[in-house]
Amino acid sequence: MGAGHGHHHAGARHRWRLAVAFALVAGFFGVELAVGLATGSLALVSDAGHMAADVVALGAALVATKIATRPDGTGRRTYGSYRAEVLASGLTVLIMLGVSVYVVLEAVRRVGEDVAVASGPLLVVGALGLVVNLVCLVLLRGGASESINVRGAYLEVAADAAGSVGVLVAGLLVRLTGDGWWDTVVAVAIGAFVAARALVLGREVLAVLGQHAPHDVDLEAVVSDLESVPGVAEVHDLHAWTLTSGMNVATAHLVLRVGADAQVVLGAAGAALREGHGIEHATLQVEALPAQECHAATW
């Protein structure tokens, strides 16, 4: 899996940053959830759910950096275990949606009730959460430009920082107005934000598992660039998909012109995919004229 080595080794260099951020976020998640349940604050519970998604995302990034250096002893996982990151992201989506549904149902249940929420715990926990997120952002920023895993974790923590700000806003509004309903209003806002992000992430997960063409790869441009390679008469049976974040792969059949050197064509085609489209791992098959168009295939 030459396509993935540099990507994951870059993440491995920053593994300690992910480990520290994971410990901080996981520890504070427990605190925020406990205080939220004890005080009846939906805003805290909602933000704790978002932080739980961060725990899973950071854990997935840690696992992904470890998997890259672990050889496959079974001989059956020909693509390695890189999809573990995608499956973990799917679990993150379920957690985020579950929290959003819980918050909405609890908000509906509170309609018509006198809601009493202490502003003190909201302000203290919100402020501590913001500090934890800012520390994690500083930690992860150093590796965000080198590793897609670290960058994904960085963006998750950045979004959670916005949730901590929401908790602070809820605490201030409750203290200024004396109305505990502000806690519910802010909680629903955070829940809607989390649900929207979950749906976006869910679409990405389904696209990867469904082996859709990567969103940043223009298939028509790929065909055009391959057909521009000297010695290539035609390109067919092109497939491109994402193995995991930052790892796009492709297969294609290249029909050679008479007299073309197959090795030279393969080298030039591979370079065109790497340099022009970020596809570092491609399996290319050469065919002679006339093109057979894979008539033997049944699907």
From TrEMBL:
The chain crosses the membrane at residues 18-42, 48-65, 86-105, 117-140, 152-174, 180-200. It is a multi-pass membrane protein. The keyword Chaperone does not apply. It holds the Pfam family ZT_dimer. It is found in: Membrane. Residues 19-209 form the Cation efflux protein transmembrane domain. Its main location: membrane. Keywords: Ion transport, Membrane, Transmembrane, Transmembrane helix, Transport. The keyword Ion transport applies. Residues 214-287 form the Cation efflux protein cytoplasmic domain. Belongs to the cation diffusion facilitator (CDF) transporter (TC 2.A.4) family. SLC30A subfamily. This is Cation diffusion facilitator family transporter. It comes from Nocardioides pinisoli.
